[in-house]
Write a structure and sequence with these properties.
Elements (H helix, E strand, L loop, with lengths): L1 H7 L2 E4 L5 H12 L3 E6 L6 H10 L4 E4 L5 H15 L4 E4 L14 H29 L2 E5 L12 H23 L3 E6 L15 H6 L5 H15 L6 H13 L6 E3 L2 H11 L5 H10 L7
Parallel strand pairs: 1-2, 1-4, 2-3, 4-5, 5-6, 6-7
Helix pairs in contact: 2-3, 2-9, 4-5, 5-6
The structure holds NADP nicotinamide-adenine-dinucleotide phosphate.
NADP nicotinamide-adenine-dinucleotide phosphate binds next to α2 and α5.
Length: 290
């Protein structure tokens, strides 16, 4: 596995490359010598990717892949094998955010977060695993520090990312037995359009928030203060993606910044959940926590 990917780099397929971390990862991987299959759910949104590829002077193989559409996954994987004859690595990057809380969201909105972030990621993984197994390749999935420690007013997103991480943590030892390395990347905040892309009308939700209004408002005001200067660029996260793609022995869980590492560390040491819950309650304005 090591020699193959390090010496020949091989073919990597990346999902969700129209913007942000996916776009930056495609450029970074292509620059590093991977044959890069950059996929997006809507080929009409490939302009930024094409422009970035031209600017970087790299060649990208751009294909359609909607991770919620199994036929589109099968088509993309089949066409990659027909063209390149192999698939050595996959980066599950596509994802969508959510905002709100249980009583402010419909079941449809809650299911939608799982449809993309959990079922979509698992469907892609299921489709590519036989090919990664054949090549003793690797699977890199962009999770989130917020999939480790749940965040208020982000319940469906955090739950779906936690589910992905638990699924892959369970899969990792099994996949290792058949030669496939499985890793999850855990970014903290990233300066992409991710938050702006969340399909929710925040002012309307806030206006209809009722009893949740003060905590929701405090949370929205608190977030920029909390993340402060910890926001990373998509290119910084892409550098970690490349590290994991080329590391001879990639760890399972990889944070992309000290902020993300501290965040995840607090949760992993918090065996009764008291620290994470009381920290988050303070963000919402609670005065009865130490
Ligand atoms: N931004 C953050 O603060 C942050 C923090 C931690 C983790 N992450 C994770 O990082 C990853 C990348 O997010 P980003 O920050 O780069 O945000 P982004 O710019 O919004 O990128 C998300 C990408 O996912 C694509 N996508 C959404 N649904 C899809 C589907 N059904 N099939 C295929 N592609 C789909 C989007 O395509 P369209 O253009 O077609 O919508 C877009 O290319 C996500 O997994 C996210 O959860 C982000």
């Amino acid at each position: 596995m090591r020699e193959k990917i390090e010496s020949a780099r091989g073919v990597v397929l990346i999902t969700g490359t129209s913007s942000g971390v996916g776009l930056a990862s495609a450029i970074t991987a292509a620059r590093a010598g991977f044959t890069t299959v950059a996929t997006l759910r809507d080929p009409g949104r490939a302009d930024a990717l094409r422009a970035a590829g031209d600017e970087a002077g790299v060649e990208l193989d751009i294909r359609r892949l909607d991770i919620t559409d199994e036929a589109s996954i099968a088509d993309a994987v089949g066409s990659v094998l027909a063209t390149h004859g192999t698939l050595d690595a996959v980066v599950n990057n596509a994802g969508v955010g959510s905002v709100g809380t249980l009583e402010l969201l419909t079941m449809e909105q809650i299911r939608a977060a799982f449809e993309v972030n959990f079922f979509g990621t698992i469907a892609v993984t299921r489709a590519v695993l036989p090919h990664l197994r054949a090549n003793r390749g690797r699977l890199v999935t962009v999770g989130s520090a917020y999939g480790v420690a749940g965040q208020p007013f982000n319940e469906p997103y955090c739950a779906a990312k936690a589910a992905v991480e638990a699924y892959l943590e369970s899969l990792a030892p099994v996949a290792a037995e058949v030669g496939v390395a499985v890793s999850v990347i855990e970014p903290g905040p990233v300066s992409s359009s991710f938050v702006a892309n969340i399909p929710v009308d925040r002012p309307a939700m806030l206006a209809a928030a009722g009893d949740y209004g003060p905590a929701f408002r405090n949370y929205l005001e608190h977030v920029p203060r909390m993340i402060g200067s910890a926001v990373q660029t998509p290119e910084e996260v892409a550098a970690t993606v490349l590290d994991v793609l080329t590391d001879p022995m990639p760890p399972f869980r990889v944070q992309t910044s000290q902020f993300a590492k501290d965040f995840v560390a607090e949760k992993l040491a918090d065996t009764d959940g008291a620290a994470v819950v009381s920290t988050a309650r303070k963000w919402l304005g609670a005065t009865d926590v130490g």
